[in-house]
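CO-FOLDING WORKSHEET

Operator: S.A.
Ligand of interest: zinc ion
Run index: 159
Mode: holo prediction, single chain
Checklist:
[x] sequence pasted
[x] SMILES validated
[ ] output reviewed
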Amino acid sequence: MLLTPHTFVGVALATSLQNPFIAVPLSFAMHLLGDKVPHWDFYSNSTKEERVKGWRPLAVMADLVTGVAVGLTFTYFVLWKQQNPDLALTIFLSGIASVLPDALEGPYIYMKSEPKLFSYMTKIQRRLQFQAPLPWGLLTQLLVIVFSSLIILKNLGLI
Ligand SMILES: [Zn+2]
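OUTPUT RECEIVED:
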């Protein structure tokens, strides 16, 4: 999946569970489950060469920036508007954990060789990916975002 829907899932878990010791590891685990949702991403049907050139790295960057913006928006909202630093920290850490599996895959994509631990992560991720063609592969992720947003807004008392 793209990083942005992963981030929404992480924030939804954080606001639901509140406890960082449960929410953070679960956000990491949910990333792997999230990749089981049939999806399209920038690496679908691409070769290793195609992944490091042209528009793909830029699209990944844009997705990453969006994901970070989502995580930080909720973090700051809870910190300043709701004056809840504990939950803000849980949201922040869960957001990071929710995209961490892909971040660990970065070296595989952008470097010739990669550290052992990373290649292990890459292998697990490869096996879990469930690709779907456009537009369905984006629609599923949109649903993940909408569903997670509803959970988040409800948990934060905004709806
Ligand atoms: Zn992934």
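REVIEW:
The pocket of zinc ion is lined by residues 31, 35, 101-102, 125 (CB under 6 Å).
The chain is about 75% helix and 0% strand.
[x] output reviewed
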